Fold:
Amino acid sequence: MDDLTDPAGLVALAAGGLALVALIFAVVLAVKLRRLRAGQSVVLGASGRDDLVVHANSLQTAFEALHGRVEEVAERLDERMAAAERRLDGAITYRSLVRYDAYGELSGHQSTSLALLDAERNGVVLSCIAHRDHARLYSKVVRDGRGERELSPEEDEAIRLALAGEPSGTVTLD
Structure:
């Protein structure tokens, strides 16, 4: 035991303690390195041999390809949306029905004028003039809210009501 108290023994004890601390530090670093490699293999895949820079570059390439695909799909959707909007502009947007007695008799408002217009105020006015013995159907083209031919007051009223956006229903004129 005298050997441990002399200077050479103390130096040996200090070196042994330092070696023990270094060994513990090396074990902790080995465990951390093992965890880092496990995480790396999750990111890099099963091979795990690639460099992180190579892996990041491949991810960037994949994102650029995906971005190109998304842009292509977005362009096609824009084209389809524009085509759908053009088709909807031609659909019936404004409509109204006006009932009246064409001949001034008490026939129960059997004559009608129906206005059917699109978003650009173009369309048609259909008028059915009913009499006791017969009925006649007239159709007139409407451009920009006006008839191409002279319109009757009832047809004008049907167009006015349609463009006013009043609830679609039946309006009876006296």
